[in-house]
Specification:
- The complex is a heterodimer of chains A (150) and B (495).
- With 150 residues, chain A is mostly helical.
- Helix content of chain A is 69%, strand content 0%.
- In chain A, α1 runs antiparallel to α2, α3 runs antiparallel to α5 and α5 packs antiparallel against α6.
- Chain A is flat, with a radius of gyration of 24 Å.
- Chain B has one domain.
- Chain B has a two-stranded antiparallel sheet with strand order 1-2.
- In chain B, β1 and β2 form a beta hairpin.
- The model of chain B has no long low-confidence stretch (mean pLDDT 85).
- The chains are: A mainly alpha (150), B mainly alpha (495).
- The interface between A and B is large, with 68 and 64 residues.
């Protein structure tokens, strides 16, 4: 059995059922004669998703047992940490500001990726901030959140 | 026409106009390289500048930027596997594997040849057939748009990779993303769950950045690739051998033709053109199974198509005054600032202007070739940058690019969500290409399907009584079925 296919198949089948149930609450009044209702297309998509999920589950059950592969937990933990860091960065940016907060994302990501040369880290952060300021802020007129300073 | 073209050539060859083309091409390449920024961003910046310029140099700079941005997107696709612009998505699929094989130089060389040739062919088609092509484009109604979208979606089987079932799930995930917005017919918010930002739907570019760029950063982190990427030695010529070039000619011509034709259809654009060109190239290939592993046709077809689409997109703009995309809408603004009225009378009243632009597009393709060729060494250096330095930088650029689209933190949040989705999908071997295909085409398909049925009073016959629609639907069915027949023939291909 290929567990990952079975689990994903069950999740996508659940998603298809959820989408279908959601469409039951869509308006049923015909606004434009001849045109399908708002629920028509989502139901077709839900049906397709459901129909595609079943063979995935079946093929997963029928598949020969997978050779156990060593899961690279260290790498996965690093990815999760970067995802959390990015989420925190996104939440805090409107209150703290882009130019102040961005080094607190770039530096940890560089360190997590194994960079230990502080000169290189300082150089990359400075280059990025300068580029963001001159190209995107000044050049393209993008108004970054600048809550604390500027 | 020939006389007008010669007058146009004379106008374009003035040093000032050549300088404007050079500036437009250079800026366009830079914009294309930066994920998140597209031709429309660059054109929006140029717009206020053009106010102080004469119409011809102003518009020459704009069309040059528009074309070069499409090429620029291929550079990061090949060097890093991260598309700089949406039309460069298919270029990743074979471009980056070539880089991993140590053939980045050749991949970049093929990209610049295909892009520039596509641009030139698009310009020639534009010059020869601007009026009749515009007339054909005018005949496109909801049924034809629906048929084009179905044709594009039928290519999912060509983009399936190892498992067709997983590709179908990918495409339905893309279609589910598309249904999240306010239904245009009833005003009912579908799957928005009270989130105001979702009322306008999920924007395409943040989804693209998340799926293809942020997910790539996550993969680099997981695989703990920290140092200089260890690709085989990148020696050899940057251009394909004569034998390779001969094998690419058909692909480039086909890609350019597809690109120009798709580009003419308002709203279709370079992304659809390059996806369809890639799918068609794979379908027509004698070795479709090699696509995705690093074949030169996988670069030449989409790159010639997305540059060909630029010439195509100018057809409805010049001949009809219809903007087919965000970029051409800005260019129409540019024309109006200059006091010119785009539309059928423009060719009759301003022949020098129109033919200067047509010739200018051709010259811009030449400039693009030379600047792009000179730039290859520079882009190769990017590959040599340590991943632990490059990837945080890429993540930062993704955030800035997404934020810059609408000065919205919601878009930044989306790149993280789609980054996680893309990372998980790739980890479990679900292809990402069908998701993008569905996001690009799903909305077009649904809207026009419903519009067509509204026109016909609910009769499905409308899709089969319009000749263009009928032909496209037949091609779509054939295009969808052929890969399955091929798979049946090839034992060992798993469902």
């Amino acid at each position: 059995m290929k567990k990952s296919n079975v689990i994903i198949g069950v999740i996508t089948l659940g998603l298809a059922i959820f989408v279908y149930i959601e469409t039951l609450g869509f308006p049923k009044e015909i606004v434009t004669p001849g045109a399908p209702l708002a629920s028509f297309f989502p139901r077709i998509v839900a049906g397709l998703l459901g129909l595609s999920s079943i063979p995935l589950i079946i093929s997963g059950i029928r598949a020969k047992p997978e050779a156990l592969q060593a899961i690279k937990w260290r790498g996965i933990v690093k990815v999760v940490v970067v995802m959390v860091l990015t989420a925190v960065y996104i939440i805090l940016m409107p209150d703290i500001g882009f130019f102040i907060l961005t080094p607190f994302l770039i530096v940890p990501v560089a360190v997590i990726m194994g960079e230990r040369d502080w000169k290189r880290i300082v150089a990359i952060v400075s280059l990025f901030i300068l580029m963001a300021y001159f190209v995107f802020f000044k050049g393209f007129g993008i108004m970054f959140p600048t809550r604390i300073f500027m | 026409m020939l006389e007008n073209l010669l007058i146009g050539l004379q106008e374009v060859l003035s040093p000032y106009n050549l300088l404007m083309i050079l500036a437009g091409v250079s800026l366009g390449i830079v914009i294309g390289v930066l994920p998140g920024l597209q031709a429309a961003s660059g054109l929006a910046i140029l717009l206020p500048l053009t106010f102080y310029m004469d119409p011809i140099p102003a518009f020459l700079m704009m069309v040059s930027l528009y074309m070069a941005a499409e090429y620029g997107g291929s550079i990061t696709s090949i060097a890093l596997g991260i598309p700089g612009t949406p039309p460069a998505i298919p270029t990743c699929w074979d471009g980056f594997p070539l880089t991993q094989k140590g053939l980045a130089k050749k991949a970049l060389g093929v990209s610049i040849i295909a892009s520039s040739t596509g641009g030139m062919i698009g310009a020639i088609i534009l010059a020869v057939a601007v009026v009749p092509l515009a007339t054909v484009a005018l005949r496109f109604g909801p049924t034809e748009y629906f048929a084009v979208a179905v044709f594009g979606l039928s290519l999912v089987a060509n983009l399936a990779g190892k498992s067709v079932i997983k590709a179908l799930i990918s495409v339905t995930i893309g279609l589910l993303i598309v249904v999240i917005w306010v239904d245009v017919f009833t005003g009912y918010p579908r799957f928005t769950f009270g989130v105001a930002e979702l009322l306008e739907g999920i924007p395409f570019v943040p989804a693209l950045i998340g799926l293809f760029a942020v997910s790539k950063v996550f993969h680099y982190i997981e695989e703990e690739r920290t140092g200089i990427q260890k690709f085989p030695e990148m020696g050899g010529s940057q251009f394909p051998s004569l034998k390779e070039f001969k094998s690419l000619i058909v692909s480039i011509i086909r890609g350019s033709g597809i690109g120009t034709l798709i580009g003419i259809i308002p709203g279709a654009g370079a992304t659809i053109a390059s996806l369809i060109a890639y799918g068609e190239e794979k379908r027509a290939s004698k070795h479709p199974e090699k696509f995705g592993t690093g074949v030169l046709e996988g670069i030449s077809a989409p790159e010639s198509a997305n540059n060909g689409a630029v010439g195509g997109a100018l057809v409805p703009l010049i001949a009809l005054g219809i903007p087919g995309s965000g970029s051409t809408a800005i260019m129409i603004g540019g024309l109006m600032i200059q006091g010119l009225k785009p539309g059928p009378l423009l060719i009759a009243e301003q022949p020098v202007f129109v033919y200067s632009i047509l010739v200018g597009l051709f010259v811009a393709a030449f400039f693009q070739f030379f600047i792009g060729t000179l730039g290859i060494r520079l882009w190769l250096r990017v590959i040599r940058v340590r991943a632990s330095i490059l990837m945080p930088f890429v993540l930062g650029i993704c955030i800035v690019g997404a934020y810059g689209l609408g000065n919205s933190m919601f878009d930044v949040g989306l790149i993280l969500v789609f980054g996680i989705l893309g990372y998980l999908m790739e980890k479990f071997e679900f292809p990402l290409a069908p998701v993008i295909l569905a996001i690009v085409l799903g909305g077009i398909a649904e809207d026009n399907f419903r519009r067509a049925l509204a026109i016909s009073g609910g009769s499905y016959a409308i899709f089969f009584t319009h000749p263009i629609s009928l032909v496209l639907i037949i091609i779509a069915i054939v295009s969808f079925v052929i890969p399955f027949i091929r798979m049946r023939r090839r034992k060992g291909a798993s469902l």
